[in-house]
Fold this sequence. Notes:
Layout: H1 3-33
Amino acid sequence: MTIVRQTQHKTWTRYLLWLAILVFLAGAIWYYTRPALPRVQLVKVERGIVEATVSNTRAGTVKACHRAKLSAPSGGQIARLLVKKGERVKAG
């Protein structure tokens, strides 16, 4: 082998070694910074009676992401209300 070929061979070997180190480091960073998997509880399947109702065991409060202020384009007062509470109405 000539001196030029030996130098080229060493250069390529050095590049491949650095590339392998970078790939290894990138893989290690990805492995140790990925999000944790959720815990799962396994339950053995059993036969039983299906209940018709489902109870709410997770009661809570819902908060809106956005708020909007609603108002009529012009102000005024209601003179007469011609329907009663709970009565059905139609458009028009």
